[in-house]
């Protein structure tokens, strides 16, 4: 059976016609095309534009070429016919020696009068200009390369295809099966090229949509929508027929085809341009938003995944600019320094790079900080007196300290104070009673990740302060005696006393000093004398100290009064200090005792933190709060009352009043449900306002005997749980039962500071 060959014949009968490849409007001279462009920023911009067009800024090598360019410019319409044009000469490398862009020396020049002048030593480029205005011919002048020149001249080489009535028979070569695919990013330039064997061969570029004809040889189709966005060039040296897309966009996506005739055969090169996609990246195992949790010493795996995009992506993990792995997962064993470290997954497909970061939040075992002082765990202790010890640690989660060995002293309970999210001050107390109790005490700080083992070293202090705990009142005085027992002469030491409460420094004193002993006398004590007294012996380079605690027994002291309101009630709040603890608290309405079973009221007392001024410093201490809540009930219907409270302890009585002169009164409905009227001047509903103390009545000795009926016959002074039931208990049959909170009755009756 005979084989069948399918051929396609194309007859080109362009007899005696030479096709020039210079685009319309360009000047053709001496085998080159000259393009005259407008609007550039500087020489470098002109260079880039000409290069993108497949050429360079013009080089002029003869008077004939110079005259041809000048005549062409003068025939152009305004403003092209009067503007200055940048050409390719410059002397940036060697001042005064001008060369063309390809590095060749000038064989011809046409400088204007006084040119080149290198004005202010900053003119390295060359422009065409009219030195004497419109009536003069164009000449050359040197200019600043960074100054905008309105116009420029590009040159490219001309190729010709001569067709003299030749009948060409093209045999198609089947090449559809191999279509190259490339990717491009919006806004980027794209270059496509196909090979040719001879510049005399006819070449055609086609492209989207439907393989529209883009160019014949170097001539661009004038009807093409994309004509201003493409350039067609030939590189004779490499044998490439090139299509350049200056600014790629979605409209340029699709199939492109280059056709050329090689030895009578039609050769087709096909390439498809696809838009590159930006990777969509996610971290697979993040515990929370931007966070992954881990434990010190336990393996952690970081994993990221990119959605399928084109072209495909490469994934790698980095931290602090260092590449950890070139894959989508990274497994490692973290150490404490990795806590809160940022790890970044990077997806790159050449065109786009996408990053996602995650922070490692690490649970780590406790470790000690602030180790600048090597003796920070050595404490000077006095026998029979508490020695406060502490250590600062960093731990996540919160640490739990405990003693592990004991040198014989009495050990206190460990406490932890949170300084910041992960910094804690751990503190406790050791009481050495005999000299053998001095020495090393080991302790362990743990969390659920691990532990820190450490120690406290006790050594004797040369300062002895007696008594270590003194008690006084308004009718007594105390002497604190401080002795330094060093062998060196005490004359080299100075002495001072410091009074403080809860670490707040209140006053300094000079005691009565005799040789190695200093005595501080405190007389007629009231609550302002309570606190810690530190005795210091000081030289130029040494300091020794010891402290004693002074407890003051005094009558109750009112710290603050306030009134709070709600829609249905008014509460009178009284904050006070009392050491010893109060024995009785009685509320009055118009000097009449408010009975415990009066359902119009609710009475409450509890321990509370109070703040008051001592020696011009604000001090927070543990105190008490008593309150009276007045419900919407008024037995006599008058609506205007004076309320007062009387507080008694073993050393005196204190009273405080709430009345209309302090802008407070209550007018409420009676039991029949008449209109409710209530007023608290300057106070709105659910508001709180401080009420200034109006009057304080006190007695240190002759105080009114409190009727024990109001306390159910309790002798609060004689029992360890003296405040446990220090609340008036209401019957469950009443509509408004009293509310109360138990006080901590387990603590000893001593004055305590935080």
From TrEMBL:
Domain C-type lectin: 29-146
Keyword Signal annotated: yes
Domain Ig-like: 177-258, 279-359, 462-551
Keyword line: Signal
Leader sequence residues: 1-20
PROSITE patterns named in the record: C_TYPE_LECTIN_2, IG_LIKE
SMART domains (UniProt xref): CLECT (SM00034), IG (SM00409), IGc2 (SM00408)
Keyword Transferase: no
InterPro entries to which the protein is assigned, alphabetical: C-type_lectin-like (IPR001304), C-type_lectin-like/link_sf (IPR016186), C-type_lectin/snaclec_domain (IPR050111), CTDL_fold (IPR016187), Ig-like_dom (IPR007110), Ig-like_dom_sf (IPR036179), Ig-like_fold (IPR013783), Ig_sub (IPR003599)
Record protein name field: FCER2
């Amino acid at each position: 059976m005979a084989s069948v060959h399918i051929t396609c014949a194309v007859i080109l009968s362009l007899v005696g016609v030479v096709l020039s490849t210079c685009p319309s409007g360009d000047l053709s001279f001496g085998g080159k095309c000259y393009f005259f462009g407008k609007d550039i920023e500087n020489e470098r911009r002109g260079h880039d534009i000409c290069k993108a067009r497949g050429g360079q800024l013009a080089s002029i090598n003869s008077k004939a070429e110079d005259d041809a360019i000048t005549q062409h410019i003068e025939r152009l319409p305004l403003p092209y016919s009067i503007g200055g044009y940048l050409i390719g000469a410059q002397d940036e490398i060697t001042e005064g020696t001008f060369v063309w862009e390809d590095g060749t020396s000038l064989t011809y020049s046409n400088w204007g009068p006084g040119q080149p002048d290198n004005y202010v030593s900053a003119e390295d480029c060359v422009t065409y200009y009219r030195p004497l205005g419109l009536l003069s011919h164009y000449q050359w002048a040197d200019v600043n390369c960074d100054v905008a020149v309105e116009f420029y001249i590009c040159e490219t080489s001309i190729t010709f295809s001569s067709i003299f009535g030749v009948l060409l028979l093209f045999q198609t070569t089947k090449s559809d099966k191999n279509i190259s695919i490339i990717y491009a990013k919006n806004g980027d330039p794209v270059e496509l090229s196909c090979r040719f064997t001879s510049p005399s061969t006819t070449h055609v570029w086609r492209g989207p949509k439907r393989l529209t004809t883009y160019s014949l040889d170097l001539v661009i189709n004038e009807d093409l929508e994309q004509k201003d966005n493409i350039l067609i060039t030939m590189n004779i040296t490499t044998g490439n027929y090139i299509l350049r897309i200056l600014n790629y966009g979605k409209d340029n996506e699709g199939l492109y085809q280059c056709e050329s005739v090689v030895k009578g055969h039609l050769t087709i090169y096909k390439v498809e341009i696809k838009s590159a996609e930006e990777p969509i990246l996610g971290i697979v195992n993040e515990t929370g938003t931007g966070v992954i949790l881990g434990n010190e010493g336990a393996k952690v795996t970081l994993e990221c995944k990119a959605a399928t995009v084109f072209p495909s992506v490469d994934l790698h993990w980095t931290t602090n600019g260092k590449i950890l792995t070139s894959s989508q997962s990274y497994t490692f064993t973290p150490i404490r320094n990795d806590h809160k470290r940022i790890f970044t997954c990077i997806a790159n497909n050449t065109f786009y790079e996408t990053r996602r970061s995650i922070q490692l939040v690490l649970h780590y075992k406790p470790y000690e900080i602030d180790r600048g002082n090597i003796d920070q765990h050595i404490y000077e202790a006095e026998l029979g007196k508490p020695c406060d010890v502490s250590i600062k640690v960093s731990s996540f989660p919160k640490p739990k300290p405990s003693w592990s060995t004991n040198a014989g002293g009495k050990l206190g309970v460990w406490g932890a104070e949170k300084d910041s999210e992960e910094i804690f001050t751990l503190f406790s107390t050791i009481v050495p009673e005999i000299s053998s109790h001095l020495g090393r005490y080991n302790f362990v700080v743990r969390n659920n990740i691990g532990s820190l083992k450490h120690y406290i070293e006790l050594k004797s202090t040369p300062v002895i302060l007696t008594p270590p705990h003194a008690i006084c009142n308004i009718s007594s005085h105390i002497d604190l005696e401080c002795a330094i027992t060093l062998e060196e002469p005490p004359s080299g030491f100075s002495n001072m006393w410091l009074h403080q409460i809860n670490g707040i420094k209140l006053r300094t004193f000079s005691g009565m000093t005799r040789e190695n002993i200093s005595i501080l006398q405190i007389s007629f004590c009231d609550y302002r004398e309570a606190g810690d007294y530190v005795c210091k012996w000081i030289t130029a380079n040494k300091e020794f100290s010891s402290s004693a605690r002074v407890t003051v027994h005094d009558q109750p002291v009112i710290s603050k009064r306030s009134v709070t309101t709600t829609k249905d009630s008014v509460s009178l709040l009284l904050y006070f200090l009392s050491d010893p603890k109060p024995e009785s608290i009685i509320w009055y309405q118009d000097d009449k005792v408010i009975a415990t079973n009066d359902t119009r009221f609710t009475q409450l007392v509890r321990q509370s933190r109070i703040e008051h001024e001592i020696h011009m410093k604000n001090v927070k201490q543990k105190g008490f709060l008593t309150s009276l809540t007045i419900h919407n009930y008024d037995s006599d219907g008058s609506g205007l009352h004076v309320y007062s409270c009387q507080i008694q302890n073993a050393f005196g009585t204190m009273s405080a009043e709430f009345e209309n002169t302090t802008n407070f009164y209550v007018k409420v409905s009676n039991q029949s449900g008449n209109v409710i009227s209530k007023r608290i001047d300057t106070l709105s509903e659910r508001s709180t306002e401080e009420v200034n103390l109006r009057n304080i009545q006190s007695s240190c000795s002759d105080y009114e005997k409190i009727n024990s009926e109001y306390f159910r016959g309790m002798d609060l002074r004689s029992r360890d749980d003296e405040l446990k039931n220090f609340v008036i208990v209401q019957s469950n049959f009443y509509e408004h039962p009293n509310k109360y909170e138990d006080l901590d009755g387990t603590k000893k009756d001593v004055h305590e500071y935080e």
